[in-house]
Amino acid sequence: MRHTTRATTAIAIAGIVGATLTGASAAQPDGSAAQPEDPGAQAQNPVYFVHGWGDEAKDCTDTWGNAVEHFAETEGMAPSKLHMLQYYDGDYADDDACNERAGGELTYADISGDGENDGTNDTRIRHVAAAFAHQLADEHDGEKIDIVAHSMGGLITRVALLGTAQGWDDFPTDSDGSPAELNVDDVVTLGTPHQGVIQKFGNTNDDTQWKSMDPDSEFMRVLHLPENRLSRDWAQDVDWSFVGSNEDDTVTGESAIDIGFHADHKYLYRGGNELEVTHGTIRTFVAGDHHFNLRHTHVGEGTTDTTEGRAPVALAWRAITDKDR
């Protein structure tokens, strides 16, 4: 049965905060003044930010503060078009600081109690994905959407689109019973375990979501069945960008770019960077532009290595806006 999700808009915080990752107030990484707002940014599709796995509710500023500041303050997007997905009970409870980083009202979409999602890490990824798919179908009928996801958030996003397109149970449908049209335009995943997480000795995580991210799990097997791959027709209307790092000790670079399988664009931070791109910093680094060892591959264009790659958050922005990367 279709349900109505709860999307709420936070209270605006007056003023604009300019603190960046490097501590400069309103400056670019090279110390120059911030560039004027791009008029095209105001016409940009709404963007959902989807966080990754956790053993407790997420803090908005710690998770996405740098990203929302970059998208809104630096690039000029309206803060209200930045949607913060809440799927754990208590996610982003203190949102004032996050709004302040964006310079205005972010939009908060709470799916922590929707459908089969009970708001904990023992909820199946599939159930969180179904709730997210309903959020997109119910709140954005006919409106193009972009998604930036970190870690497990990329799996939630991928399954939201996959399950809807394939007509899986509990995913949104139109009135005639056919799969709903989610109208997702661009997806960027940062450090997502498309082929599973690194299995570390002594790891004690035994919740449902973590076990699904085991490379040998049934979840991973189903995700890579021939009919579910991104090379199939169901995924062709979406521009998929996968970003990974060889300095990530939770998700290997190869897993993050789904090595051996299709994605439209793949970006691999190769290591030896001026700033280390870890599992956490892959969603926070904005500064350090043109100081990253980056390998990028685009379908039909081959692979290029550069020592002047952009920082991950800046790269994500350019990926969803289809700018030169």
TrEMBL record:
**Region entry Disordered: which residue ranges?**
25-45
Q: Which InterPro entries match?
A: AB_hydrolase_fold, DUF676_lipase-like
Q: Where is the DUF676 domain?
A: 135-200
Record key words, sorted? Signal
- Domain of life assignment: Bacteria
Annotated signal sequence range: 1-26
What this protein is called in its record is DUF676 domain-containing protein
Species of origin reads Saccharopolyspora montiporae
